[in-house]
Amino acid sequence: MADDVRPEEIVKDGVDQATVDAARALEAENYEAGFTTDVEQEFAPKGLNEDIVRFISEKKNEPEWMLEWRLQAFERWLTMEEPEWAMVNYPKIDYQDAYYYAAPKGQAKYESIDDVPEEILETYKKLGIPLREAEVLLGVEGAAESAAEAREKPRIAVDAVFDSVSVVTTFQEELKKAGVIFMSISEAVHEYPELVKKYLGTVVPQSDNFFATLNCAVFSDGTFVYIPKGVRCPMELSTYFRMNAQGTGQFERTLIIADEGSYVSYLEGCTAPMRDENQLHAAVVELVALDEAEIKYSTVQNWWPGDAEGNGGVYNFVTKRGDCRGKRSKISWTQVETGSAVTWKYPSCILRGDESVGEFYSIAVTNGHQQADTGTKMIHLGERTKSRIISKGVSAGKSDQTYRGLVSVGGKAKGSRNFTQCDSLLIGQTCGAHTVPYIENKRADAQLEHEATTTRLSEDQLFYCRQRGLGEEEAVALLVNGFVRDVIQKLPMEFAVEAQKLLEVSLEGSVG
Amino acid sequence: MSETDVSTLIAKPSPAEERFISAFKTLGTDASRLRSFEAFAKKGLPHRRIENWRWSDLRAALKTSGVQGNSIRDVFAEIAGPTFTFSAQGVKTPNAQPEGLNWSEELLETSFVASEDLPMAALTAALCENSRVLRIEISADQSLPVRLVIDANASDMFSRIELNVREGVKATIVESHFNQGGFSSTVIEYNVEKNASVERVIYQSANETAVQVVTTNVRLSGDSEFTQSALAKGAKLCRLETRVDHQVEGAKAVINAAYLLDDGRHVDVTSHVRHSAGHCETAQVTKGAVKKGGKGAFQGKFYVARDAQKTDAAMAHNALLLEDGAEVNAKPELEIYADDVQCAHGNTAGSLDEDALFYMRQRGIPLVTAKAMLTQSFIAEGLATISDDALREILEEEANQWLMTSL
Predict the structure, then answer these.
(1) Which end of chain B is less crowded, N or C, counting CB atoms within 10 A of the terminal residue's CB?
(2) Does residue A434 contact residue A464 with C-beta atoms inside 8 Å?
(3) Are B12 and B114 in contact (CB under 8 A)?
C-alpha cells in the first residue's frame, strides 16, 4: 500500500477488485476458508458423560484440581436447560452425537515448529496465518530484507488451535524476555497453576450459563496470557482457531490477565471447513484488567455459515466477558462477525474499578440463512465508570439479526456514563433486523443514552454511485463500508484489511 | 371439568393463585372461562423470571393481600360527559343516553384474551363477573368525552370493556384508573373502524398497597387514528400495557405517557405495536420522573411484518432520576422484517441537563425553580398531544402539583 494513496481510494479500489473476484466465484465457493485438512487425528469416543470429561483431562495430563473443577461443572450442566430467549431457531442439539475431543495424532504440543505436520502448517498458510516466525519476521519467505526493515514490520505472535489442541505458539521466547506469558491454557495449567487457579472462572463462573458450563466441563484448549505489571506487550498477540474434524465441537477457553498498568492487544480469528452438518462452538473468554491496565480484544469471526440453502454451518454459542477489576482499567471489545449459521454472543464488561472504561464496537453481517443474536452487557459498578457501545448490523438474504444489549448502573456507580448507538441496515425484503436493548439505572447522576435506527440502503446514494459508473454490488459494498466505518477504524490495521475483505464476500449475492 | 381438576391446573399455587382458583370455582364452568383460566394457569402469576415481567414481579407483589386505603381524588371529576363507573358493586351506567352511544353487557369482538402471552388478560377473562362486563358502541360523533372510571377497593376486582368506534366517528374517551389498596385487573379492547378517530386520555392513581394491571388491545382499520396519552402515579405495582395492531394501510397511532413516582411506587409502561399493514405510522413518547424509592419501567416494542413496507415508527423513552435511590429500567425493542421502513428508538435515563440549569441560574432563576421549570417542560412532552385543552391542562396541572411538592 503506497503512502501517497488517500484512504478513500484504497477502500474503493479494494472493494472493486474484491467484488469483481467474488462475483466470478460460485456461491458456495465464496467461503475461502472452507477446505478441509487431511491429517490423521484421534478422537474421544462420541458422546458426553463423566468418562469423556475424565478422558479429556487425562489426555491433557491435568492435575487433580483441574479434573475436579471440570467434573463439578459437568454435574451442574446436567441440571441446566438450554436457553431459549434468543431470537434464533435451530433444531434441538443432540449433545450425545458429537465428539468432544479431536487432536492431530502424535503429541499434544509440538516441541518445535519443525515437528508440526506439514498439512497443518499448510492449513494455516492457506488461511494467511504464518506460523514460522521467520516468515513473520521477514514478511515473505526468502525475501532478503534487512534486519532493520524486518523490525519495523508489525509482528504478531500466534497461538494456533487446531480442533481441540494448540499446535504451536510462536514468539514465546521473545515474549518471555518482556515477562509476558503467552501459551496454550493446557500448558499454563502445568506451568503456572497458581495464576490459572487464581483467575480461571472468576469472570465467567462455572454456573454462568448452559454453554459456559458445558465449556467448563469439556474445554479443550485455548490461550493463556499474563502481562506483568507495567509491561506494554511488545507485539500483538493472536489466536487462530480452526475447526477441522467432522462432527466435532470446539470448546476453547481463553484467559487474559493484564496486571497493573499493563497493555495488550489481542486478536482472534476463526474458520471452519464447509460441512453439511452443524458444528458446535461453545467458547469462554475471560479477561481481567487490574489497576490502570488495558486490554484490547479484537475478533474476526468467520466460521462456516452454511450453504445457500441453510445447510450446515457452525453454531457459535460464546460467552465472553471482561472484568475491569482495577481502578482506571479499560477493556475494549471489537468484533467483526460474518460467519456462523447461528450466533449467540454477548461480549461484556464488568466495570468494577472506579473510573474504569468498557467499549464494544461491533459489525455483524448476516446473509443467506444466518441468524445472529449478539450484543453486549456493560455492568457499571464502580464510580465514574464509562462505557460506549457502537453496533452496526447488516442483514441480507433470508437472515435474521438481533442486537441485544444491557447497560446496567448499580446503586454505587456514582456519575457513570454510557452511550449506545445501534444501527441496522436491511438489504432486501426477506431479512430481519431486531434491536433489544435493556437499560437499568439506579443512579440519579448517571447519564445513559441509547439511540437506534433501522433503515435500508438509501436509494439516492445507490443511484449516485451507479451513475458514477459503479456496478450495483460494488455500490452496495461501498455504502456498507461507509455504514460500518466507525467500527472498522477501531480494528488493528492487520485486521481492518481482512475485515473489509470479508464484508465484501459476505454480502456477495445480496443484491438483486 | 370437576372441581379437583381446576385445582390441579397450577402446581404449588401461591395464596393469591389459590384465591383465584376458588373464585373461579364459584363462577361456574363456562367453557370460555375455563379456556382462559387454563391459559393463565400454564405459567401462573407472572414473576421476574418471565421475560415480559422482569421488572414487574406480580407474584411477589401479591404475596400480601390488599389493605383498604382512602378513596382517590379524580382529577377529571369536573369533566362533563356520559360516565361508566366500574366498582365492587358492578357497573354504573350514565343516566342520560346521548345519540350514537349505546351499551350492552354482551361482548362482541373478543379474541385475544385467552392468549398465554397476556396472562393477566386471560385471568381477567376467566374471573371477571358478568356484572363488570360492558360493551360500548359509538356510532356518531360525541360532543362530550365518554368517561370510564375504574375504582377498585381492597378486594380483587376484574373488569372487561369493549369499545367499538364505528366508521368515520370521532370520540374522546377519558379513563380514570383508581385502586384504593387491593388487586385489580382491567382489560379494554378498542376497535377503531375505518376513518374513525379516537383520543384516549388516561389518569392512573392508587394507594401504596394497590396492585393494578390495565391491559388494552387496540385494533386499527384503514386510515383510522388513535391518540393515547396517560399520566400515571404508580402503585405498589402498576402495569399499563397497550397493544396496538395496525391491520389496514393508513392508520396512525400515538401512544404517549408520563409517569411520576414517589417512594414505594412502581409503574411499568409496556406497549407492543404491531405493524401488520404498510403505510402506517406510530409515534411514541414516554417521559418519567422518579424520586428515591420509586421504580419506573418502560418496555416498548415495534413489530414490523414482512409486508408492512413504508412503516414510519419512532419510539422515545426519557426518564429523570430526581434523587439517588430512584430506579429506572427500560427495554425499547424493534423487531423488523420489512426493509423499506423508517424505525427509530431512543432512550435516556439520568438527571437534568447541568448546562441548562447553569444557564437558568445565571439568568437569576433560583435552583429549585429552575429545576421545576425544566422538569415541567420535560414531563409535558408526554402529554403534549392531548388535543382537548381542558383535559391536557388538568393533567399538566396535576403533574406540576406533584413536581412542586417533590423538588
Answers:
(1) N
(2) no
(3) no
Name the band, by pLDDT with cuts 50, 70 and 90, for residue B104: very high
pLDDT at B109: 59
Cell 490495521 sits on residue: A493
User: What is the C-alpha radius of gyration for chain A, rounded to an integer number of angstroms?
Assistant: 22
Give how many domains chain B has, as a whole number.
1
Residue located via cell numbers 443484491:
A511
Q: Do A411 and B51 touch (CB under 8 A)?
A: no
Half-sphere exposure of B361 (CA within 13 A, CB side): 10
- Cell 441485544 locates to A404
The pLDDT of residue B285 is above 80: yes
Q: How far is B113 from chain A (nearest CA, A)?
A: 23
B335 to A434: CB separation less than 8 angstroms, yes or no = yes
- Residue A266: CB partners within 8 Å, gap ≥ 6? A225, A236, A237, A238, A239, A256, A295, A296, A297, A298
Using DSSP, how many helices (H) and how many strands (E) does chain A show?
14, 24
Q: Which residue of A has its CA nearest to B341?
A: A455
Residue A232 lies in a domain: no
pLDDT, one tens digit per residue, over B361-396 is 999 999 988 988 899 999 999 999 999 999 999 999
Residue with cell 389498596: B181
User: What domain range is A8 assigned to?
Assistant: 1-30+463-512
Residue B71: count of CB within 10 angstroms of its CB: 11
Q: In chain A, which residue's Cα lies nearest the Cα of B307?
A: A429
Question: Of the candidates B336, B346, B351, which has its C-beta nearest A434's C-beta?
Answer: B336
User: Number of folded domains in chain A?
Assistant: 1
Task: Give a yes or no: residue A424 inside a domain.
Answer: no
Determine, for residues A448 and B325 on separate chains, whether the beta-carbon distance falls below 8 Å: no
Confirm whether B1 is domain-assigned: no
CB of B319 within 8 Å of a chain A CB? The answer is yes
Domain of B193? 31-351
Spatial contact of B345 and B314, defined as CB atoms under 8 Å apart = yes
d(CA A326, CA A349): 13
Which chain B residues are Cβ-neighbours of A456 within 8 angstroms?
Answer: 339-341
A386: left (phi over 0), alpha (psi -120 to 50) or beta: beta
Cα-flanking dihedrals φ and ψ of residue A283, to 5°? -100, 160
Looking at CA atoms only, how far is residue A465 from chain B in angstroms?
A: 19
CA distance B281 to chain A (A): 15
CA of B19 vs chain A CAs: smallest distance (Å) = 31
Chain segment A197-253, per-residue pLDDT in tens: 999 999 999 888 999 999 999 888 888 999 999 999 888 888 877 766 666 778 889
CB contact under 8 A, A432 and B330: no
CB A243 within 8 A of CB A274: no
Instruction: Calculate ∠ Cα B136-B137-B141, nearest 5°.
Output: 120
A433-442 per-position pLDDT tens digit: 999 999 999 9
The predicted complex's ipTM stands at 0.85
Chain B residues close to A439, C-beta within 8 Å: 328-331, 347, 349
Chain A residues within 8 Å of chain B (Cβ atoms): 85, 87, 411, 424, 426-456
> Is the pLDDT reported for residue A507 higher than 80?
no
**Dihedral sign for Cα atoms in the order A98, A104, A109, A113:** negative
Q: With an 8 Å Cβ cutoff, are A439 and B330 in contact?
A: yes
In a domain, residue B393? The reply is no
Q: What angle do helix axes A50-59 and A210-218 make, rounded to 10 degrees?
A: 50
d(CA B33, CA B113): 10
Residue B164 inside a domain? The answer is yes
Q: In this structure, how many other beta carbons lie within 10 angstroms of the beta carbon of residue A385? A: 31
In a domain, A11, yes or no: yes
- Which residue of B lies nearest to A435 if distances are taken between CA atoms? B334
Q: Provide the 8-state DSSP code for B78.
A: T
**Residue A169, in any domain of the structure:** no
- Grid coordinates 489481542 are at which residue? A266
Q: By the 8 A CB rule, do A164 and A41 touch?
A: no
